[in-house]
Amino acid sequence: MTRRNGAGLLAATALVLTAALPARLDAQNALDAARIAAGAPGEWLSTGRTYDEQRFSPLTQLNAGNVASLALAWSADLDTARGQEATPLMIDGALYVSTAWSMVKAYDARTGAPLWSYDPQVPRETLVKACCDAVNRGVAAWGDRLFVGTLDGRLVTLDRKTGKPVWSVVTLDPKGNATITGAPRVVDGMVVIGNGGAEFGARGYVTAYDVATGKQMWRFYTVPAQPGTETEPAYLKAAASTWFGEYWKQGGGGTVWDAMAYDPALDLLYIGVGNGSPWNQKYRSDGRGDNLYLSSIVAIHARTGTYAWHYQTTPGESWDFTATQHIVLADVVIDGKPRKVLMQAPKNGFFYVLDRTTGALISANNFVPVNWATGVDMATGRPIERPEARYYKTGKPFIGSPGATGAHSWQPMAFDPKSGLVFIPANLAGFPYFPDPAWKPAKLGFNVGVDMSAGAMPANRTAREAAAAATTGALIAWDPALHKERWRVAYTGPWNGGLLATGGGLVFQGSAAGAFAAFATTDGRKLWSFPAQTGIVAAPISYALDGQQYIAVLAGWGGVWALAPGTLIDKSGPVRNISRLLVFKIGGKAVLPPAPVLEKLPIDPPASTATAAVIAAGAEHYGRYCGVCHGDAAVGGTLVPDLRRSGVINDAALWQQVVHGGALKANGMVGFGSVMSAPDIETVRQYVIKRANEDKALELRQAAARAPVYGK
Q1: Average pLDDT, stretch 26-41?
Q2: Residues 223-247 as b or e (16 or more Cβ within 10 Å = b)
Q3: Can you say whether residue 188 is alpha, beta or left, with left for phi > 0 and alpha for psi between -120 and 50 degrees?
Q4: What are phi and psi of 683, to 5 degrees?
Q5: What residue spans of 149-260 are helical by DSSP H?
Q6: Are strands 154-159 and 276-277 parallel, antiparallel or unpaired?
Q7: What is the pLDDT, as a whole number, of residue 33?
Q8: N or C: more exposed end of the chain, with fewer CB within 10 A?
Q9: Is 620 in the same domain as 476?
Q10: 461 domain-assigned
Q11: Distance in angstroms (rounded) separating the CA atoms of residues 559 and 538
Q12: Residue 333 lies in a domain
């Protein structure tokens, strides 16, 4: 049972916010704090619709009785074939959406007519600093302005009517390896933005800028600096006692690359803090300490940027268990009492319900199978770890469940205040954590302290099939009051889309397999489905114009699962990317063009003649520098070239021009000459040749097994 804020409290909240608005803001702003807090039912004003990030639309025109008549109203093809992760905004009859490479586009929300387009001209070589594709998760709005964070670290302000830049500020050190993929949030006349880059040596923080001028109002760091180099506030001094060794040399991590939520009545901004840099705590903090505020939910006094409280989900984080996943605020009745709660289902597999005023833990149960811990100690709030999970202490590999992609990644969940259920896009996928006793940091590539080559998928068919069978996905309906699952929809693979709940008793989600579907809130029955021709990972929205309810979603397969898992990529569905904005309504008449035929080049490598030692060296270099984009064990998708099928492996000189010299840096493929010598790079080619020959032989065996046998 849940209780939603009444109209009186909503009006009071709006009044408080309006009174707090700085005088410098334009009084005629079409969008202000009160409007976001109230959440005009027919619009979508912020990435989570309202400050509480519930992703719930109160619109009821679409329901279980008529959703079967939902059809495509219009679509718009995008000009980039990378992953699309943004949540659109709908304001005053216009749809605003960011796309890959941090571009922003505006459309007439009724017809799909383009209004304007903005390209921040992100240098394509920036991609080497991004762990998980050239994605962007959305824009923020305030008055007549839009705000977008760019992959290369800028916060850009656009005129909402024209798309013209108003001001821009660089939020990151251009010489560093941090990036921006998350959506900004606007609170109290300030636009707040974080960044990513923990795998590349970043130190995490969020920054608030004046919406009118771009002036920095405050910056909140999530991990302490090198002792003695900065005058730090008390919360960072307290954190420093939980760190050891020379942690600052690798940045520490703790980047705030996605989740934020805001309670205007408490003036608390809640941020989700990311993983450590590197993952392996042995190399980050001498293998000890909680390492605050990694993998934590932190509450900040929004007006001043000062610390209020924190809750750490994974002390001493060592598995890429970020707490940057979607944060939802709600008023929920628990044990007969109304509670102001904060809810999160982070990567580590536990669903947390906290008192959002104090940070006190209310419940924490696992929503997927978990093997790194047996539960959460309710007295201390700490996970009850299994000793074998600390792979760097045992010196033995640990096959973690969940793995580094998380039981729940960035794809937003949704909360329905009518049913009291939270809907989670869950991944059921493990990850092999192999300790790397010889690891050294490098200035390019993943710096995680784990031996990626040792954990690569073997050529053995049986092992591959076993791993694939254990890798699935689910849409889980979770009851936060009773802290248990109510129902689930099973998916063949992970990395399915973010969620939308509506007042009509519907839950909308796209899948990696290319279907966009509506489910019944009560029991998960599939009520409607649309073939989108590509995987959908972004979250939908709903809006209304002229008495008609619409559903909009950004389609386009991408993100880390479309790049890194190698042979498991196909487990989730089609690997092609067709980037489009899709908009639906009852009685829509639009039709998509035929899907292009996906054709793969044959695997036709030269013979493998290198020694075992050369191939082993190549595997090590590939695992560290190449696999995150070109796929585990050199099994690639279609967002970037599948190296097994590339003709470049047949030409040693051309291989050096690309991999050493950066001949294709304009496509995002920079040169790696600063971290690998020419002989090192040749070992990578030899490793890819060996892998290509293995998989060519496997394909031939599979083809022979499928061939009909005559005469019997």
Answers
A1: 61
A2: bbbeeeeeeeeebbeebbebbebeb
A3: left
A4: -65, -35
A5: 234-240
A6: unpaired
A7: 63
A8: C
A9: no
A10: no
A11: 10
A12: yes
Q: How many independent structural domains does the chain possess?
A: 2
Residues forming a β-bridge with 544:
549
Q: Whole-angstrom Cα distance, residue 141 to residue 33?
A: 10
d(CA 90, CA 500): 15
Q: Does 572 share its domain with 630?
A: no
Catalytic residues: 320
Q: Quick check: 194 and 293 in contact, CB under 8 A?
A: no
Q: What is the DSSP letter of 358?
A: T
CA distances from 324 to 200, 254, 261, 317, 423 (A): 17, 9, 11, 13, 17
Residue tagged 């049972």 (tokens): 1
Whole-number Å distance between alpha carbons of 128 and 97: 24
How far is 351 from 482, CA to CA, in rounded Å? Answer: 12
The token duo for 511 is 């899948």
Instruction: List strands edge to edge, sheet with 499-502.
Output: 56-57, 499-502, 506-510, 515-520, 526-531
Neighbours of 357 (CB within 10 A): 17
Higher pLDDT, 453 or 577: 577
Structure tokens at 173: 């050190």
Question: Residue 630 CA to chain centroid, in angstroms?
Answer: 19
CA distances from 567 to 467, 630, 648 (A): 9, 11, 21
Closest CA to 197 of 128, 131, 263, 111: 131
Q: Which domain holds residue 337?
A: 9-430+470-586
CB 293, CB 270: distance < 8 Å: no
DSSP for 275-286? -EESS-HHHHHT
For residue 653, the domain's CATH number is 1.10.760.10
- For residue 593, being part of any structural domain is answered with no
Q: How many CB atoms lie within 10 A of CB 22?
A: 11
Provide the angle, in degrees to the nearest 10, between the axes of the packed helices 652-659 and 678-706. 110
In a domain, 520, yes or no: yes
Q: What is the pLDDT of residues 543-596, one digit of tens each?
A: 999 999 999 999 999 998 888 888 787 777 666 899 999 999 999 999 999 988
Q: What is the pLDDT of residue 711?
A: 53
**Of 372, 373, 388, 390, residue with least CA distance to 449:** 390
Distance CA 214, CA 235 (A): 26
